[in-house]
Amino acid sequence: MATALDGRGYGADFKKLPPGGRILLVGEDRNLGMDRPWSGGSEYNVQLVKTWAKESPDSRRFAIRTRQAGIGAVVFNVPRFNDSLGRAPAFALTARELAIVNPWWKRLREVYKTPPRIGYALPGPERAPYRSEAHGTGRVERAR
Fold first, then answer.
1. CB 75 within 8 A of CB 117
2. CA 38-66-138 angle, 5° bins
3. Measured between alpha carbons, how far is 57 from 45 in angstroms, rounded to an integer?
4. For a disulfide at 121, which of 18, 57, 89, 132, Cβ 3.0-4.6 Å?
5. pTM above 0.90, yes or no
6. How does pLDDT run along the chain (144 residues), one tens digit per residue?
7. What is the SS3 assignment for the chain?
8. Cα(48)–Cα(140) distance, integer angstroms
């Protein structure tokens, strides 16, 4: 049976992400076809991974921060992320922030790769699916 996700937005790729949990958009600001909550910024905001790494004293606290945000999957747009990092020093990850993010990133499990996007699942316990009335309620978080 066809759904609203077929033929537009993330379509089949989105269906490969694990159920439940919020989707963290990294380098991506398009959410067409996502039928559950997401967290991300726009091309004009600092990426959440930078904001959270800057606020975290170490990689363990960074991982806790993603769990507290309810993140269950990640959609990573590599070229757009790299573009955002190169816009100005305030957007680039520092060596300290990279050291915090990399251990977390290495634990993610790739579930699809459709250039320029890669979808990842977070390890750990399954997150409960969101109820249908919460679908489509994305949230843009801004850097402080």
1. yes
2. 10
3. 22
4. 18
5. no
6. 555 555 556 667 878 888 888 999 998 877 776 778 889 877 778 889 999 999 999 999 999 999 999 999 999 999 988 888 888 888 889 999 999 999 999 999 999 998 888 999 988 655 544 443 333 444 444 444
7. CCCCCCCCCCHHHHHCCCCCCEEEEECCCCCCCCCCCEEECCCCCCCHHHHHHHHCCCHHHHHHHHHHCCEEEEEEEHHHHHHHHCCCCCCCCCHHHHHHHHHHHHHCEEEEEECCEEEEECCCCCCCCCCHHHCCCCEECCCC
8. 10
User: Would you state the structure tokens that stand for residue 86, as one six-digit string?
Assistant: 């190169």
CA dist., res. 23 & res. 55, Å (int)? 20
